[in-house]
Amino acid sequence: AAQALPPAHRPVVRLFARPRAKLPDRRVDIKCSGCGAKLFRYAKGNGASSNLVKVYRQRIVRDFTEGAPPGECPGCGATFAREAVIHGLPALKIVSGKVRMK
User: Fold this and answer.
1) Which end of the chain is more exposed for a tag (fewer CB within 10 A), N or C?
2) Nearest CA to 80 among 41, 44, 34, 49?
3) How far apart are CA 79 and CA 102, in angstroms?
4) Buried b vs exposed e over 70-86: b needs ≥16 C-beta within 10 Å?
5) pLDDT digit string (tens) for 64-100?
6) CA 42 – CA 44 distance, rounded (Å)
7) Per-domain residue ranges for the chain?
8) Do residues 58 and 45 touch, judged by C-beta distance below 8 A?
9) Separation of CA 102 from chain center
């Protein structure tokens, strides 16, 4: 007698909502909390009062870190973020306490 084969295993794919394609109206300046160097001008969607956890690359209006490795401050060399893919989009995950917003 033939044995029954186990059910096929499929990889679990979790689908999340992508960020809006239209850039938010609010712009914030992101600075290094160590040396105060300007890092980004960013289109922030959730208001300036909430903490900055991630920075989507497509929402960076002006990048002042060109020439420095991704996630490193050009002024003092401190690591303020790490590269990640969030909801299928390239982003920087901010290290807590390493940046300030204004």
Assistant:
1) N
2) 34
3) 20
4) ebbbbbeebebbeeeeb
5) 998 899 999 999 999 999 999 998 899 999 999 999 9
6) 6
7) 27-101
8) no
9) 17
Which single residue is written with the structure tokens 């060399």? 77
- The amino acid occupying position 53 is V
Express as a percent the part of the chain with pLDDT over 70.
Answer: 85
Q: Would you mind telling me the total number of residues written for the chain in this entry?
A: 102
- How far CA 37 is from CA of 5, 20, 99, in Å, comes to 61, 29, 10
